[in-house]
TrEMBL record:
Its cofactor is Mg(2+). InterPro entries: ATPase_NBD, Carb_Metab_Reg_Kinase/Isom, ROK, ROK_cs. Its EC number is 2.7.1.4. It is an enzyme of class 2 (transferase). Keywords: Magnesium, Metal-binding, Zinc. It catalyses: D-fructose + ATP = D-fructose 6-phosphate + ADP + H(+). It comes from Sphingomonas hylomeconis. This is fructokinase. It holds the Pfam family ROK.
Length: 301
Protein backbone atom coordinates (compact mmCIF):
# COMPACT_ATOMS: atom_id res chain seq x y z
CA UNK A 1 0.00 0.00 0.00
CA UNK A 2 1.28 3.46 -0.86
CA UNK A 3 0.01 7.01 -1.03
CA UNK A 4 -1.40 6.51 -4.54
CA UNK A 5 -3.22 3.22 -3.89
CA UNK A 6 -6.88 3.74 -4.82
CA UNK A 7 -9.60 2.90 -2.33
CA UNK A 8 -13.38 3.20 -2.60
CA UNK A 9 -15.70 3.95 0.28
CA UNK A 10 -19.41 4.18 0.96
CA UNK A 11 -20.74 6.08 3.96
CA UNK A 12 -24.41 5.10 4.18
CA UNK A 13 -26.16 7.54 6.49
CA UNK A 14 -29.76 7.96 7.51
CA UNK A 15 -30.25 11.12 5.44
CA UNK A 16 -27.62 10.85 2.72
CA UNK A 17 -25.04 8.43 1.38
CA UNK A 18 -21.58 9.51 0.27
CA UNK A 19 -19.52 7.50 -2.20
CA UNK A 20 -15.82 8.41 -2.27
CA UNK A 21 -12.68 7.39 -4.09
CA UNK A 22 -9.32 8.07 -2.46
CA UNK A 23 -5.63 7.78 -3.10
CA UNK A 24 -4.27 6.63 0.22
CA UNK A 25 -6.36 8.65 2.65
CA UNK A 26 -6.79 11.62 0.30
CA UNK A 27 -10.30 11.76 -1.13
CA UNK A 28 -10.14 12.71 -4.82
CA UNK A 29 -13.76 12.33 -5.84
CA UNK A 30 -17.16 11.97 -4.17
CA UNK A 31 -20.82 11.66 -4.97
CA UNK A 32 -23.69 12.41 -2.57
CA UNK A 33 -26.94 10.45 -2.95
CA UNK A 34 -30.06 10.95 -0.79
CA UNK A 35 -30.89 7.96 1.39
CA UNK A 36 -34.36 7.13 0.15
CA UNK A 37 -35.70 3.60 -0.39
CA UNK A 38 -33.00 0.89 -0.40
CA UNK A 39 -34.11 -0.24 -3.86
CA UNK A 40 -33.10 3.18 -5.17
CA UNK A 41 -30.20 4.18 -2.95
CA UNK A 42 -28.12 1.00 -2.99
CA UNK A 43 -28.21 0.41 -6.77
CA UNK A 44 -27.28 4.07 -7.33
CA UNK A 45 -24.25 3.65 -5.06
CA UNK A 46 -23.25 0.43 -6.81
CA UNK A 47 -23.55 2.13 -10.20
CA UNK A 48 -21.15 4.82 -9.00
CA UNK A 49 -18.65 2.18 -7.85
CA UNK A 50 -18.89 0.53 -11.27
CA UNK A 51 -18.24 3.86 -13.00
CA UNK A 52 -15.10 4.37 -10.95
CA UNK A 53 -14.00 0.80 -11.65
CA UNK A 54 -14.37 1.45 -15.35
CA UNK A 55 -11.96 4.36 -15.03
CA UNK A 56 -9.33 2.55 -12.94
CA UNK A 57 -9.37 -0.35 -10.45
CA UNK A 58 -9.47 0.28 -6.72
CA UNK A 59 -7.63 -1.97 -4.27
CA UNK A 60 -10.42 -2.39 -1.71
CA UNK A 61 -13.85 -1.15 -0.68
CA UNK A 62 -15.02 0.00 2.73
CA UNK A 63 -18.71 0.25 3.67
CA UNK A 64 -19.61 2.33 6.72
CA UNK A 65 -23.35 1.94 7.28
CA UNK A 66 -25.94 3.22 9.69
CA UNK A 67 -27.22 0.47 11.93
CA UNK A 68 -28.13 -1.74 13.44
CA UNK A 69 -26.54 -4.08 10.92
CA UNK A 70 -25.54 -7.75 11.01
CA UNK A 71 -21.73 -7.92 11.05
CA UNK A 72 -21.19 -11.63 11.73
CA UNK A 73 -19.87 -13.14 8.46
CA UNK A 74 -21.20 -16.56 9.49
CA UNK A 75 -24.76 -15.31 9.90
CA UNK A 76 -27.18 -15.80 6.97
CA UNK A 77 -28.16 -12.12 7.25
CA UNK A 78 -24.58 -10.85 7.15
CA UNK A 79 -24.54 -7.34 5.75
CA UNK A 80 -28.29 -6.81 6.18
CA UNK A 81 -29.82 -3.92 8.11
CA UNK A 82 -31.57 -5.20 11.24
CA UNK A 83 -34.75 -3.78 12.78
CA UNK A 84 -34.54 -0.02 12.33
CA UNK A 85 -36.92 2.91 12.74
CA UNK A 86 -35.93 4.09 9.23
CA UNK A 87 -38.92 3.14 7.06
CA UNK A 88 -38.26 0.46 4.46
CA UNK A 89 -34.70 -0.35 5.51
CA UNK A 90 -35.22 -3.32 7.84
CA UNK A 91 -33.68 -6.30 6.05
CA UNK A 92 -32.00 -4.22 3.34
CA UNK A 93 -29.15 -6.17 1.70
CA UNK A 94 -26.45 -3.54 1.95
CA UNK A 95 -23.31 -5.65 1.58
CA UNK A 96 -24.52 -7.95 -1.20
CA UNK A 97 -25.84 -5.14 -3.36
CA UNK A 98 -22.62 -3.17 -3.09
CA UNK A 99 -20.10 -6.01 -3.38
CA UNK A 100 -21.46 -8.88 -5.50
CA UNK A 101 -19.06 -9.48 -8.36
CA UNK A 102 -16.29 -7.25 -7.04
CA UNK A 103 -12.83 -8.80 -7.28
CA UNK A 104 -11.28 -6.70 -4.52
CA UNK A 105 -11.31 -7.16 -0.72
CA UNK A 106 -14.02 -5.31 1.17
CA UNK A 107 -15.13 -4.70 4.74
CA UNK A 108 -18.39 -3.52 6.26
CA UNK A 109 -18.91 -1.96 9.68
CA UNK A 110 -21.07 0.67 11.32
CA UNK A 111 -20.60 4.26 10.22
CA UNK A 112 -19.52 5.23 13.73
CA UNK A 113 -16.97 2.43 14.04
CA UNK A 114 -15.57 3.55 10.71
CA UNK A 115 -15.40 7.17 11.84
CA UNK A 116 -13.70 6.12 15.07
CA UNK A 117 -11.11 4.22 13.02
CA UNK A 118 -10.46 7.27 10.82
CA UNK A 119 -10.06 9.47 13.90
CA UNK A 120 -7.66 6.92 15.37
CA UNK A 121 -5.43 6.96 12.28
CA UNK A 122 -5.70 10.53 11.02
CA UNK A 123 -7.71 12.65 13.46
CA UNK A 124 -8.02 13.47 17.14
CA UNK A 125 -7.75 9.88 18.36
CA UNK A 126 -4.03 9.42 17.88
CA UNK A 127 -2.12 7.88 20.80
CA UNK A 128 -5.37 6.57 22.34
CA UNK A 129 -5.68 2.89 23.19
CA UNK A 130 -9.39 3.35 23.94
CA UNK A 131 -11.57 5.69 21.93
CA UNK A 132 -15.26 6.40 21.40
CA UNK A 133 -16.74 8.36 18.50
CA UNK A 134 -20.29 9.69 18.98
CA UNK A 135 -22.38 11.30 16.27
CA UNK A 136 -25.58 13.20 17.06
CA UNK A 137 -27.62 14.09 14.01
CA UNK A 138 -30.44 12.23 12.27
CA UNK A 139 -29.88 9.55 14.92
CA UNK A 140 -27.30 8.95 17.62
CA UNK A 141 -24.60 6.33 17.28
CA UNK A 142 -21.35 5.48 18.99
CA UNK A 143 -18.33 3.56 17.77
CA UNK A 144 -15.83 2.07 20.21
CA UNK A 145 -12.20 1.18 19.47
CA UNK A 146 -9.85 -0.71 21.77
CA UNK A 147 -6.20 -0.85 20.70
CA UNK A 148 -7.18 0.33 17.24
CA UNK A 149 -9.81 -2.35 16.67
CA UNK A 150 -13.55 -1.82 16.57
CA UNK A 151 -15.51 -3.54 19.31
CA UNK A 152 -17.69 -6.39 18.03
CA UNK A 153 -19.36 -9.17 19.97
CA UNK A 154 -22.94 -10.34 19.95
CA UNK A 155 -23.30 -7.49 17.43
CA UNK A 156 -21.86 -3.98 17.65
CA UNK A 157 -22.28 -1.27 20.30
CA UNK A 158 -25.72 0.35 20.21
CA UNK A 159 -24.90 3.33 22.39
CA UNK A 160 -27.77 5.39 21.01
CA UNK A 161 -30.34 3.16 22.69
CA UNK A 162 -29.02 3.39 26.23
CA UNK A 163 -31.67 4.55 28.68
CA UNK A 164 -30.05 6.88 31.17
CA UNK A 165 -30.80 8.86 34.30
CA UNK A 166 -33.03 11.82 33.44
CA UNK A 167 -32.76 15.37 34.73
CA UNK A 168 -35.25 16.23 37.46
CA UNK A 169 -38.03 18.32 35.97
CA UNK A 170 -37.49 17.14 32.39
CA UNK A 171 -40.77 15.49 31.40
CA UNK A 172 -40.11 14.88 27.69
CA UNK A 173 -41.17 11.30 26.97
CA UNK A 174 -38.75 10.72 24.10
CA UNK A 175 -39.24 10.02 20.40
CA UNK A 176 -37.61 6.61 19.80
CA UNK A 177 -40.11 4.16 18.32
CA UNK A 178 -38.36 1.31 20.15
CA UNK A 179 -37.41 2.75 23.55
CA UNK A 180 -39.03 6.15 23.98
CA UNK A 181 -36.53 8.12 26.06
CA UNK A 182 -33.29 6.36 25.17
CA UNK A 183 -30.50 8.84 24.45
CA UNK A 184 -31.26 8.87 20.71
CA UNK A 185 -34.91 9.51 21.52
CA UNK A 186 -33.87 12.51 23.61
CA UNK A 187 -31.24 14.38 21.60
CA UNK A 188 -31.25 13.36 17.92
CA UNK A 189 -32.63 15.78 15.33
CA UNK A 190 -36.21 14.52 15.31
CA UNK A 191 -36.26 14.32 19.12
CA UNK A 192 -35.17 17.95 19.35
CA UNK A 193 -37.93 18.95 16.96
CA UNK A 194 -40.43 17.31 19.34
CA UNK A 195 -38.81 18.79 22.45
CA UNK A 196 -38.80 22.33 21.12
CA UNK A 197 -42.06 22.04 19.23
CA UNK A 198 -40.35 23.48 16.15
CA UNK A 199 -37.29 23.07 13.96
CA UNK A 200 -34.44 23.18 16.52
CA UNK A 201 -32.40 25.28 14.09
CA UNK A 202 -34.66 28.18 15.09
CA UNK A 203 -34.44 27.60 18.85
CA UNK A 204 -32.50 30.33 20.63
CA UNK A 205 -29.26 29.37 22.36
CA UNK A 206 -30.83 30.67 25.57
CA UNK A 207 -33.81 28.29 25.38
CA UNK A 208 -33.88 26.31 28.68
CA UNK A 209 -34.34 22.98 26.87
CA UNK A 210 -30.70 23.13 25.73
CA UNK A 211 -29.60 22.63 29.36
CA UNK A 212 -31.64 19.41 29.45
CA UNK A 213 -30.05 18.31 26.17
CA UNK A 214 -26.56 18.99 27.57
CA UNK A 215 -27.44 17.06 30.73
CA UNK A 216 -28.57 14.06 28.67
CA UNK A 217 -25.35 14.09 26.64
CA UNK A 218 -23.32 14.44 29.84
CA UNK A 219 -25.06 11.38 31.27
CA UNK A 220 -24.14 9.47 28.11
CA UNK A 221 -20.50 10.55 28.43
CA UNK A 222 -20.36 9.45 32.03
CA UNK A 223 -21.75 6.04 31.10
CA UNK A 224 -19.17 5.64 28.31
CA UNK A 225 -16.30 6.63 30.60
CA UNK A 226 -17.43 4.25 33.34
CA UNK A 227 -18.05 1.27 31.05
CA UNK A 228 -15.31 1.54 28.39
CA UNK A 229 -12.60 3.57 30.19
CA UNK A 230 -12.34 5.62 26.99
CA UNK A 231 -9.39 7.95 26.93
CA UNK A 232 -11.22 10.20 24.52
CA UNK A 233 -14.81 10.74 23.37
CA UNK A 234 -15.00 12.52 20.03
CA UNK A 235 -18.19 14.15 18.79
CA UNK A 236 -19.55 14.68 15.30
CA UNK A 237 -22.95 15.27 13.75
CA UNK A 238 -25.08 18.29 13.03
CA UNK A 239 -26.56 18.70 16.52
CA UNK A 240 -23.29 19.06 18.40
CA UNK A 241 -21.54 20.98 15.60
CA UNK A 242 -24.33 23.53 15.18
CA UNK A 243 -24.42 24.53 18.86
CA UNK A 244 -20.82 25.14 20.03
CA UNK A 245 -21.96 26.02 23.56
CA UNK A 246 -23.18 22.46 24.20
CA UNK A 247 -19.81 20.73 24.58
CA UNK A 248 -18.47 23.11 27.29
CA UNK A 249 -21.71 22.57 29.22
CA UNK A 250 -21.37 18.80 28.81
CA UNK A 251 -17.79 18.87 30.12
CA UNK A 252 -18.82 20.93 33.14
CA UNK A 253 -21.67 18.55 33.97
CA UNK A 254 -19.59 15.39 33.56
CA UNK A 255 -16.89 16.72 35.87
CA UNK A 256 -19.51 17.77 38.40
CA UNK A 257 -21.08 14.30 38.41
CA UNK A 258 -17.99 12.07 38.23
CA UNK A 259 -14.94 14.19 38.94
CA UNK A 260 -14.75 13.14 42.58
CA UNK A 261 -14.82 9.45 41.58
CA UNK A 262 -12.76 9.14 38.39
CA UNK A 263 -9.23 10.33 39.21
CA UNK A 264 -8.41 11.16 35.58
CA UNK A 265 -11.43 13.46 35.17
CA UNK A 266 -11.20 17.09 36.22
CA UNK A 267 -11.79 20.50 34.66
CA UNK A 268 -8.45 20.60 32.86
CA UNK A 269 -8.55 17.04 31.54
CA UNK A 270 -12.17 17.22 30.39
CA UNK A 271 -11.18 19.42 27.46
CA UNK A 272 -8.86 16.67 26.24
CA UNK A 273 -11.19 13.78 26.98
CA UNK A 274 -14.33 15.30 25.43
CA UNK A 275 -13.54 16.86 22.06
CA UNK A 276 -15.01 17.51 18.66
CA UNK A 277 -13.87 15.04 16.04
CA UNK A 278 -10.61 16.19 14.53
CA UNK A 279 -11.70 15.28 11.00
CA UNK A 280 -14.97 17.19 11.30
CA UNK A 281 -17.50 16.26 8.63
CA UNK A 282 -14.86 14.14 6.87
CA UNK A 283 -14.77 11.57 9.67
CA UNK A 284 -17.59 9.56 8.06
CA UNK A 285 -16.29 9.36 4.48
CA UNK A 286 -12.74 8.76 5.71
CA UNK A 287 -14.14 6.06 7.99
CA UNK A 288 -15.18 4.14 4.89
CA UNK A 289 -11.67 4.56 3.46
CA UNK A 290 -10.15 3.36 6.75
CA UNK A 291 -12.31 0.23 6.49
CA UNK A 292 -11.14 -0.31 2.90
CA UNK A 293 -7.52 -0.09 4.01
CA UNK A 294 -8.20 -2.54 6.85
CA UNK A 295 -9.74 -4.94 4.32
CA UNK A 296 -6.64 -4.75 2.13
CA UNK A 297 -4.33 -5.29 5.10
CA UNK A 298 -6.36 -8.30 6.24
CA UNK A 299 -6.07 -9.78 2.76
CA UNK A 300 -2.28 -9.44 3.00
CA UNK A 301 -1.98 -7.40 -0.16
Amino acid sequence: MNATTRFAGIELGGTKAIAVIAEGNRIIDRRVIPTVAPGQTLPALRAQLDRWLAEAPFAALGIASFGPIQLDPAHPDFGHILATPKPGWTGATVAATLTDGLACPWRIDTDVNGAALAEYHWGAGGQCTSLCYVTIGTGLGGGVLINGRAVHGAMHPEIGHLRLRRTIGDTFSGSCSFHGDCIEGLVCGSALRDRFGMDPAYAADTHPVWRHVAADIAELCGTILLTTAAQRILFGGSVILSRPFLLPWVREMVVDRLGTYLPFLYTGSAEQILQLAGLGTEAGPLGAIALAQAALNAAGR
